[in-house]
Fold these 2 entries.
Entry 1:
Amino acid sequence: MMFKTLMLTTAAFAVSAGMALADGKVIGFSQIGSESGWRAAETTLTKKQAEERGYQLQFSDAQQKQENQIAAMRSFIAQGVDAILIAPVVATGWDAVLQEAKEAEIPVVLLDRMVDSDPSLYLTAVGSNLVHEGEVAGQWLAATVGDKDCRIVELQGTTGSSPAIDRKTGFEKGIAGHDNLKIVQSQTGDFTRSLGKEVMESFLQAENGGKDICALYAHNDDMAVGAIQAIKEAGLKPGQDILVVSIDAVPDIFKAMADGEANATVELTPNMAGPAFDALEAFWANGTEPPKFIQTESKLYTQADDPAGQYEARKDLGY
Amino acid sequence: MNTRTLPLFVTIGIFLAGCLICWVQFPNMASTRVLGNLLTDNAYLGIVAVGMTLVILSGGIDLSVGSVIAFSGVFIAVMLRDTGLHPLPVFALLLGLTTAYGACMGWLIDRLAMPAFIVTLAGMFLARGAAYLLSIDSVPIAHPFYQTLQNAYWLMPGKGRLTLIGVLMLLTFVLGMIVAHRTRFGTSVYALGGGEQTARLMGVRQGRTTVLVYAFSGLMAGLSGIVFSIYTGSGYSLATVGTELTAIAAVVIGGTLLSGGAGYVFGTLVGVLTMGLIQTYIVFDGTLSSWWTKIVIGLLLLVFILLQKGLLHLSETRLAARDA
């Protein structure tokens, strides 16, 4: 009897799941993980966007592992979803699974990060121009420092990931031609607060207790927030003794900017799903092929841009 | 059914029950596509788990395998990029290297009478460090031979793909079963895991067996590295972090006694597939946090450890009763 009831309930569940599948499109979303607040906001906004448009979102968190993302993509294909969104954890190694999606005629949209596969294997990629972000940060620093000598320490993102490579290149481009600006230390903080703090501590030790450092450039705000903590613990004033510039524009960096502990951030909008869904809708409606890269805006925020107000506007996004 | 085979039957039972739950809830999970994915996505894990099974049967542990897989991928990618060699000689070179690496760890464990845990932990850091030395960036593999390997699959009815690496995993399990259950070396491994005293009484050459078992694990880790590089088409020094622990979990869920001496290679295959099934279920559901994979695996591990303790207790009391 127990068994029968159990089977009936499970069957009812299966039927209701089937009903949900019937209306609206089903989208598979393979997210890297939740390593930073920005990524959590991207996840929240993607879920929100899907709900508003009446899609059913199949969400899979890869916990920073490519093998999990490939497995999730294969499962989405086996499920027969209508489209796949993926934020790839690393640039290489996607050819085979993208090919499989293409053969199953499932459009794939890359979010926020690029892959090195042939562009014919995916519908489009939505992202900010990472090199440009780094460049905006570099140009701001060059303009702020002026003619003074400036020794810069750099906190890189996850080794080998495209944002780490491009934000480094962009920043170097931004400060090129200013010989008084020099990057003296550069190491990975893996995009996390805790490593940002840890690596900054070693930078401070290496650079005469931090007295020789004029500016910090972090590849994301989370590492900058961690580093600010380390600078404070070393008895220096972040934002004054050491200028802090980073990328992403998460709420906490606005809080730090309002307190005068950070100087500037370049926004990477977490709403990547909006443009992705727009492109998909046009594609489904009449087969419109979107451009292979849809660029989002990279806006610079400084202490003059009402950081307290920006914090209020962003804090509920799930960062 | 005796206490030796009970864990194996429990493993198989759990897997079949898992299949049933999946099928009832998501009828479209019963497709050859899902089956093909299960084999392909877990190929590297399965292969490395075969080596791990032998190591655990011998009463040891090998924590270096995850790093060795990452090292293998980077080694292959860098070799193919910087030299004009064909992948096949590179594979041979790599397998020689990882086998020797495993043998060295085995030799240290035996000669210095050090816990396997410490020696292979050092091996884990060394291999990961060596991978970083070769390249900190992820290196794509563009060799045409790799394309051939990646596109080598048999299209099953229902569009599922039985890939080369999936088949390779199954063959590795067959090899593992033969080595463990049909050779003298296999018997020595079981004897060693049953206790050094027993092994000595049985005339097992302890040093030789220890070196060989870690060499075998190194070989499997190298092979798994090759499979992983085919799977992702690249070499990345941050890949497969924690895979050694996943492999150990698969072995234990597969019914092998963590203290050594009892278990079956086939159980490990079922263990690997069970873990893959959980992951697939969570993706099909689409609303569950993927951390549930870890939670369910954790619970399964607990069940098996308790089961093993219970069985041990049972056989001890039975022995005591007979003596009395």
Entry 2:
Amino acid sequence: MARKLLLEHINVPGINTLDVYRSKGGYASVEKALKTMSPEDVVEEVKKSGLRGRGGAGFPTGMKWSFLAKPEGVARYLVCNADESEPGTFKDRYLMNYIPHLLIEGMIVSSFALGAKVSYIYVRGEMMPQIRILEKAIAEAKNAGFLGKNILGSGYDLELYVQPGGGAYICGEETALLESLEGKRGNPRIKPPFPAIAGLYGCPTVVNNVESIAAVVPIINEGGEEYSKIGVGRSTGTKLISAGGNVKKPGVYEIDLGLPVEEFLYSDEFCGGIANGKRLKAVVAGGSSVPILPANLFLKTINNEPRLMSYESLADGGFVTGTMLGSGGFIAFDEDQCIVRNTWNFTRFYHHESCGQCSPCREGTGWMEKVLHRLENGHGSLSDMDLLVDVSKKIEGNTICPLGDAAAWPVASAIRHFRDEFEWHVTNASEAVTRNFGLAHYADPLTKKEAVA
Amino acid sequence: MLRVEEAQAPVEFSPELIKKFDDIVSRYPAGKQKSALLPILHLVQAEHGWLSSKAMDKVAEYLHLQDIEVYEVATFYSMYFLRPQGKYVLEVCRTGPCCLVGAEKIMDHIEQELGVKEGEVTPDGLFSWRGVECLAACGYAPVLQIGPEYTFYENLTNESVNKLIADLKARGSS
């Protein structure tokens, strides 16, 4: 069993309190960083670790930090992105709920590395219970001298605040998040300038995901080089995977990157297979935005190599036969699930969450939702699939922020891999309302050849 | 669809609430008090149950903003109610992963139990319900939340929903 770096003590009773957290070695990285390291040393360790942004994009965190502009006399900010709302992802809620001090510890070390004197944790508004947990933990940390003026006698000052959002998926995009934190609508900004140059209040700002910031703690404790030994290739370290949908044991799992997907899905240590003795039809591996894959393509790449839970292996085959690790929101679909209905559901989500700033996304997501709705309800035509692909292509890459891409990919991939199921909804319209297409040739394991519908 | 409704009674913020506002404003650099807008709207909604235009005007006055700056924010974010709601608003997650394990049936059941359509308020003023987008709790699906504390109810079944509604009824009418 692999070592856990983030969730090692998650089941210790009272780990949400400062005393218990400290008794398990908590806040050691703050003492190490503030007393024995310079901010540049901390950035260097994070660079060495190979840590990649855990929010979905996978951009190297150390590199992001090194881009931060440091003009004289201008404040710098670290903002933690806890606006977790990618369908399928619930790891940040879990982490903040059960081990809030880990995030606060990471925030202190990261803020020190970046020279931020005030940092914010932007939590989605629906997570009010987690906001209260974090605020209590911050008060405890401040009482113990880990926040405030002259932390541990190092001369470094830091104030940490929690900011609630208002319920908008788009605020997970970093510039929309900054707009929201400034008290405005969450419309993403045109980049450049990037937040590293002009972010919160026009000052240099770094925005990092909850998990990325938490991962800084073991990186500082053990050294970036040790951390980089975990994992495979450029996917270093551990990753929290939120397993949901039709798996037997849904929940948050910490895995070493590079774990074979088959082991993750079927071993009792993790998901434990598909619930209710059913078979796997499809998987969305990294949150609803990433391309959906049929079971056979998910478990093995097109070259018949076992797929691994890593940035590279999941992306093997590009968008034709691969997908992305994304935020680690793992959604399994069993044989009874309807791909058309699910695609409509996801598209409704993106239509609802589009901020309305760019026409291709504002209008396109609505069109796709309508077309998918009529397909699902038996009013579609065979030309609708090409229409959907056409609309998705016209959204993709033509918007200010990646929400447009995120809305286009699930539709394009569903039609790419499950076109016969979409066609069946047209040719067998009355049946499609009452029953599902079934497994066809997607299932795993394939026990017998099934007739298509 | 999104229109701002008028409250009948004049809106006054209590000194305790204003003190909470002051505390929030102190988190931001001088002159950046607009950052306090979202948290303050949450507090106002928790107190009044929804955001009337009178309440929003008051917030604008407090933060030295134009009224429109408050309206545009309140209409953008899905958590702010622009019309009166039931005392308990059941918000059921309706996005993909929850639907894989039966969220739609739970919504049908709630509609039947409460006897009102999505967005409407029960005659006794106790309940309203709506489907909301992903609540980031896919591993505990189906889920619903109830403001203003945003308490979470996980792994819902028809029976647990019935019990929840009965409990809330007992609490709400006492």
